[in-house]
Amino acid sequence: MATHEVTNQARPFEGLNLFDINQPLQAALQRHHPGFDRARFRALGQDAGSAAMQADARLAHTHTPELRSHDRFGRRIDQVEFHPSYHALMAAALRQRLHGSPWAEGPGSHVERAAAFMLFTEAEPSVLCPISMTFAVTPALRANAAIFAEWGPKLADTRYDPRFVPAAAKHAVTMGMGMTEKQGGSDVRSNTTRAEPDGEDAWGRRFRITGHKWFLSAPMCDAFLVLAQAPSGLSCFFLPRLLPDGTVNTLHIQRLKHKLGNQANASSEVEFDRAAAWLVGDEGRGVPQILAMGALTRLDCALGTAGLMRQALSVALHHSAQRHAFGKRLADQPAMKNVLADLALESEAATALAMRLARAVDRTEHGLDADGHEAVMRRVLTPIAKFWICKRGSAFGQEAMECLGGNGYVEEQGEGVMARIYREMPVNSIWEGAGNIQALDLLRALRSGPVADALMHEVAAARAANAAVERLAMRVRHGLDEAGDEAQARRLARDVALLVEAALLHDSSPDAVFDAFCRGRLDEPSDVFGALPAGCDLDAVIARAMPWEA
Ligand SMILES: Cc1cc2nc3c(=O)[nH]c(=O)nc-3n(C[C@H](O)[C@H](O)[C@H](O)COP(=O)(O)OP(=O)(O)OC[C@H]3O[C@@H](n4cnc5c(N)ncnc54)[C@H](O)[C@@H]3O)c2cc1C
After folding, report:
1. Could you read off the pLDDT of 448-461 as tens digits, one per residue?
2. Count of CB atoms within 10 A of residue 195's CB?
3. Which of 424, 431, 441, 444 maximizes ligand 1 atoms within 8 Å of its Cβ, making it the mutation to test the pocket?
4. Fewer beta carbons within 10 Å, N or C terminal of the chain?
5. How many CA atoms lie within 13 A of 548 on its CB side?
């Protein structure tokens, strides 16, 4: 006999077109690449919001990767087994051209790819680790023309092929990176892994690599860029899992990491035992060489966190619009309205900032930067977006989870997505250079060109429109001129981020959003979400974020 009826529980957030409901993302695309392929995004939005893709994400996180170090006869095989849903998601990411494809496409390709990457993140972010590295490796790998001639087209091919066979037998390949060692990750100059010269062949100077990496994500990638100490100093190498003659290279997977989140993706500890690798770029110049890759994975950290924010916001809005408490929908309770509007502001600002950086990448990569402005913005916004968006992610995830009350905290075999989002959030802040490293990189960027002038040019219209923006701009200008004190680096990074976000919202968002952002972030900033000052148009901000009937 039934003991009770289940009522007042929200329906699952599924079956919505995630592109159609994302007005800030549409605005960013419209602004940075007005000719964007709308049909592509409508199709992706439909897929990413589908119950089928959500099921793949749940299964890939529930049935996590397993290391198979040896076969049953005791021979090393060093392979990782994934659930079929992981492969389905990887195949979808390649079909969506989130990996190397934009390098082979025309102007706007990086803007489109960035927006698609954000949308896909809302379906599942873990697989985007190898996808991001496969995207980011191209500029660095070009420095070895022979290898790039063979591998470049395969890095952009959309036919995912997870087989453990030599690259020559595959249409598409994936790549990862190995920098971090036990004794140092941020300070890679402390790397101890050695590279000994071993002759020369069609791929250039060959070396033998001996040592370890403490973090090597996605170890089933077909090849990696790794840092190792060569006779002339720290250098960058191309290290394939399988050698051209089909033999397995001596990269041994020691174990997989037990991580807080990012469960569907394998991250490993590895050792190299005289593994064959080829020099990429100049010997002794490994750090700048591999950072050509790192700068782009930092872009993806910002995009990924902005995507996760949007996902968490959508679920929170969807739930609050259906759940009733104290005689009203949660979404109509004034205190909850303030929380939802505040989250919506943060999400829109993050989307705008990440997409602005993508535009700078696009313009510079496609030679559309005659006056050099985009190059300066790319240099300065890479650490800014990585630092600020990723830093805000965890607090955002916590607050969005709280909107669902106890249901937010419960996973129920992976179906409760808020807990997964919350566990995923910190990783983008830590990997590819944690918060302090980004803030310190801002100080380095200030020495690289006319940053202050470029920034002030960028925010001029918003300064004229709002007194709080003008005050912040003055403070930033002073801070940039005085920059050098590392103890103040985060403060400056935060201020630059807020200033640029305000300018972007001024240019592309409704007045209610820009106004509330200026009041709640610049005039009367708060340590918690949901404390926007009186006078903000909460309804308008929420309506912008939630154009669907729950
Ligand atoms: C899930 C996951 C996957 C990863 N995958 C990969 C991978 O595929 N390949 C790879 O190479 N690495 C990978 N990493 C490693 C990651 O990039 C490093 O953990 C990160 O760069 C930090 O290095 P560390 O762990 O050695 O910490 P440290 O370098 O010891 O840093 C610790 C803290 O000190 C701060 N700090 C460092 N220097 C300074 C300074 N001068 N001033 C002030 N503060 C400072 C940092 O900001 C950080 O907060 C992965 C990490 C994670 C969590």
Report:
1. 879 999 999 999 99
2. 29
3. 431
4. N
5. 19
